[in-house]
Each structure stands twice: as C-alpha cells, then as structure tokens.
Write a structure and sequence with these properties.
single chain, about 350 residues, alpha+beta, name from scop, four-stranded mixed sheet
Length: about 350
C-alpha cells in the first residue's frame, strides 16, 4: 500500500494529522541543544553555585552539632532547610533546560497540543505489530544512528581524556582549589564538544525524520480523489448543479426579453436585448444575450412581443463580448446604440427618420 502513496499530502491531510498530534520534530537535536544550554549556564553560574553550595555545607556542619538537632523534630527541620537550599541551587538550571526544550519543540510543532497521542489503543498491545515495528526501516535507522552516536561520542571523549591524562602530573604542583577548577573546566570543554557532536548528528537525523514524516503523509490517488469529493463535492454532482443553475439563469433572462426596447442581432449567431429607462438608468442595460440556439430563442420571443429586431452584426458581436447581463453597456457603444434606440422610438411614434426606413424587423 505504501508503494501506491505517490501524491504529496494535501493541506487538509496535514491539518488533520496535526490535530491528531502527528507532527514532525527532531527530539535528539532538542535534547542536545538543551544539554548545551544547560552546560553553558553551568559555566556562567558555576562560581556562584559553588559558593552557595559551600555556604550550605557550612550551615549544615554548624547546625549538626547543636543539641536541639539531635531529636527527631530538630533533625527533620535541618534536613528540610538543606533540601530547600539545594532545590534553590539546582532550580534555575532545571527551569532553563525545561524552557529551552519547550521552546525548541514548540518552534518545530508550532506549539500544537493533542491528547490523541496519549489515548489508549488496543493495537499497541498487539505483539505482531510490535515485532513489525522492531524490524522496520525507521527502527533500523534509529539503531544505526545510536551506534554512530556512541562511536563518535566515544572517540571524542577518548581523545580528550588521553590529552587530559598527559597533563595530570602538572596538577601535583597546583593548589587544590586551582586544580579542582582546572579539572572542572577540562571536563566542561569535553561535555561541550560532545554536545556539539550530538547536535551535528541530530541535524542529519532531523533531515531524515523530516523525509520520513513527509513519506508517511503521502496519499494515494484514490485518497486525494475522496478528499476532494468530501471538501469540494463530487465533480459530477457539481457539474449537474452548474448546468441546472445555468438553465435557471437562462430562463430568468428569457423572461426579461419582452421588457426590452430593441434586440440587436447578427442574423444567425448573436442576439443582445437592450432596454433604456431614462428615469432609472444612465445608459442602456443588457437584459439578455446569447449565441446560436439562445440567440434564436431571444429573437423568437422578441418577435412574439413585437420587439424591434435590428440587424447590426459588428455591434451585436461587440455587445455580446463586452456587455454583461443586468448591467449597463460600456461607454464606447453609447453613440451606436443611441442611434438605434432613436430610430426605434421614432417608429413607435409613427415617424421614421430619413435614411433609416430600410431597416429590417
């Protein structure tokens, strides 16, 4: 079935999957960047955290020898105070790491939250499905990524430890405090390098995860057709509706032909019915227009109601193309139409201007 999924996911499919919580994000790169941020913060705040820790240990040592601490309540109070101090010590790092991971995940998922991912599904208890997942392409890539990560990180740590071991004799001649800070700085540099390596691997994994996610979202041609039917409607039904609407519009248009003042025609193909009401309109209005069969019907209705039919092929074609039913004619046709209407009105009064008595009914 997956080989048949050749079509890119539609916007609706992506939106539906997001509602289900199926969004793409690179978790490994989130973890690596979060660790890097935490180590950098530890480097910046380390001096203050160490001072606070030493103060806490001094407080513990000073209080531990007091008499009231020897009873249960006193010991409990002391341990509570120590716990609160240690919580204050590590809380900034925990909050910073949590905020960093939240922001990284939110940026990738656009802060989508769905409970459907954590709902119970009986299919997850199916051992056959579990075995298939274990031997899937995705699992194989995860295993390969884990092996590569362990090897690369191991090589980085080994090389740095070897370099560090060569400098160990120098620490015998350093004050204790200086050697402790120097060793801590060395291990900090190693951790930062490890984080950078993991971020590099995470970026490659991010592209693989993106490709896998896009592949999972792909649809078959039939799924695309079904979705189109659901969102836009069945094409055959829509075509039938459009045909019915066109017939109704034509019927309404034909009902207005008897109200027209003149029908301008190209004898065989085009017909445009016009009406001018000087009290309402600033220019003649197109009541109906059509070609071939519809033009024939317009002329037939006009003949039945004694509407003047005026033959003017160029004007009929131009009005059909430029005029819209129910709207006034364009300004470039005012002069030509005015002459025709003047002739029609004169016929109604029983007088036809010289030179225009040869016009056809």
């Amino acid at each position: 079935m997956s080989s048949q999924k050749t079509e890119k996911a539609t916007p609706k499919r992506r939106k539906d999957e997001r509602k289900k919580g199926n969004v793409f994000q690179g978790r490994e790169i989130n973890i690596a960047i979060t660790l890097l941020v935490m180590f950098v913060a530890l480097r910046i705040l380390g001096k203050y955290m160490l001072a606070f820790f030493m103060q806490t240990m001094g407080y513990f040592i000073a209080k531990a020898g007091e008499v009231h601490v020897l009873n249960q309540n006193g010991a409990l109070q002391l341990m509570t105070n120590i716990f609160l101090r240690l919580a204050i010590l590590v809380l900034p790092l925990l909050l910073l790491s949590a905020l960093t991971y939240f922001l990284l995940s939110g940026i990738q998922t656009r802060f989508i939250f769905s409970t459907k991912k954590i709902k119970f599904k009986a299919s997850r208890l199916n051992p056959i499905t579990g075995i298939k997942n274990k031997f899937s392409m995705r699992s194989a890539m995860h295993l390969l990524k884990s092996i590569v990560t362990v090897i690369v990180v191991g090589v980085v740590i080994y090389n740095n430890i070897v370099d560090f071991a060569k400098t160990l004799p120098a620490y015998y001649f350093m004050p204790v405090s200086q050697s402790v800070f120097s060793i801590a700085a060395t291990f900090y540099d190693i951790f930062v390098k490890v984080c950078i390596v993991i971020i590099g691997i995470g970026i490659l994994d991010w592209f693989f995860q993106w490709w896998q996610h896009e592949k999972d979202l792909r649809m078959t041609k039939q799924e695309v057709k079904e979705e189109y039917k659901m969102t836009e409607g069945d094409p055959q039904i829509k075509s039938a509706i459009r045909s019915r609407q066109q017939r109704m519009a034509q019927r309404r248009m034909m009902q207005k032909v008897p109200q027209s003042d003149v029908v301008i025609v190209n004898p065989e193909h085009y017909a445009v019915a016009l009406k001018y009401d000087e009290k309402k309109d600033s220019a003649p209005v197109v009541l109906a227009k059509g070609v071939d069969y519809i033009a024939l019907k317009i002329k037939e209705i006009a003949g039945e109601h004694d509407i003047k039919i005026e033959e003017n092929p160029p004007l009929a074609r131009a009005l059909y193309k430029a005029g819209d039913v129910g709207k006034e004619i364009p300004a470039e046709f005012y002069q030509a139409v005015a002459e025709i209407l003047s002739y029609v009105y004169s016929l109604r009064r029983g007088y036809a201007p010289r030179g225009k008595t040869n016009r056809k009914r």
